[in-house]
């Protein structure tokens, strides 16, 4: 997934009300940007961090910039746009970069299922069971090299795990895919101290037959793409 129009750098002043961030552009102008991330963004919202924004000229949008990346000291990039995880994964599926799913040719986004929910991607292929693919964007890292999910309590995330289990019980295939949008992690685990209920739901789902996948990404201000499978320390 390439960024178009190109991203521009800025300095973060503050993130507030979950979806807003005040930043300073290179010419010194202060603007408010949209923050497309409902999580806590632990470690990614400190004042003074370099961030990357995508400008837009859409008159229907109230804000002219959307926050896409954080650049941490040392050059680590983190993709903070949770909405982009589906697009990144779909691009990888189209390019056959996820070995476990190369047999599927039909991809349907946002299909209704479960109890008033929508699956991120429904994969279908003749003579194969339907595959329900839920995707979570991972941005938290509290120990060097270790990516963790979630970064705050997520009842919605636990619900998704339960609904994936129900799809397995109906004879379908169900997968929880964790997409690590960081350039500094080599393994993945659950942040069970931040949300014990999610951790419990995870183990219940895995026991029920829900498959778990985790991939890291190549990230730069030019774009984000799926890279390699990451081991899960769970």
User: Rough shape?
Assistant: globular
SS-based structural class? alpha+beta
As a whole number of angstroms, the C-alpha radius of gyration is 18 Å
- The fraction of residues in strands falls at 35-45%
Low-confidence stretches: none
Give the strand order of the largest sheet, numbering strands 1, 2, ... along the chain.
Answer: 3-2-1-4-5-6
Number of E strands: 15
Question: Which bin fits the share of residues in helices?
Answer: 10-25%
SS summary, helix count: 3
Characterize the largest beta sheet: strand count, sense, and whether it forms a barrel.
Answer: 6 strands, antiparallel
Distance between the termini: 29 Å
Q: What do the pLDDT scores average to?
A: 95
Order of helices and strands: EEEEEEHEEEEEHEEHEE
Structure in words:
The strands form 3 sheets. A 6-stranded antiparallel sheet has the order 3-2-1-4-5-6, with no helix packed on it. Strands 7-8-9-12-14-15 form a 6-stranded mixed sheet. Strands 10-11-13 form a 3-stranded mixed sheet, with no helix packed on it. The longest helix has 15 residues. The protein is 17% helix and 42% strand. It has 234 residues and is an alpha+beta fold. A hairpin with a 5-residue loop joins strand 5 and strand 6.
């Amino acid at each position: 997934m390439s960024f178009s129009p190109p991203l521009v750098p800025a300095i973060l002043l503050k993130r507030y009300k979950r979806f807003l961030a005040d930043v300073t552009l290179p010419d010194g102008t202060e603007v408010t940007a949209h923050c497309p991330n409902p999580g806590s963004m632990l470690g990614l919202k400190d004042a003074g961090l370099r961030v990357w924004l995508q400008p837009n000229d859409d008159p229907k949008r109230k804000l002219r910039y959307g926050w896409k990346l954080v650049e941490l000291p040392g050059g680590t990039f983190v993709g903070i746009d949770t909405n982009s995880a589906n697009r990144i994964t779909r691009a990888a599926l189209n390019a056959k970069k996820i070995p476990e799913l190369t047999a599927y040719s039909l991809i349907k986004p946002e299909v209704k299922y479960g109890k008033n929910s929508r699956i991120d991607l429904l994969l279908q292929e003749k003579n194969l069971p339907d595959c329900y693919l839920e995707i979570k964007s991972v941005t938290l890292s509290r120990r060097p090299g270790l990516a963790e999910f979630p970064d705050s309590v997520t009842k919605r995330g636990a619900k998704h795990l339960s609904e994936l289990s129900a799809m397995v019980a109906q004879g379908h295939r169900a997968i929880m895919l964790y997409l690590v949008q960081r350039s500094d992690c080599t393994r993945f685990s659950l942040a069970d101290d931040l949300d014990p209920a999610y951790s419990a739901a995870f183990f219940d789902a895995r026991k029920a037959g829900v498959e778990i996948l985790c991939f890291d990404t190549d990230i730069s201000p030019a774009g984000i793409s799926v890279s390699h499978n990451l081991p899960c320390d769970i």
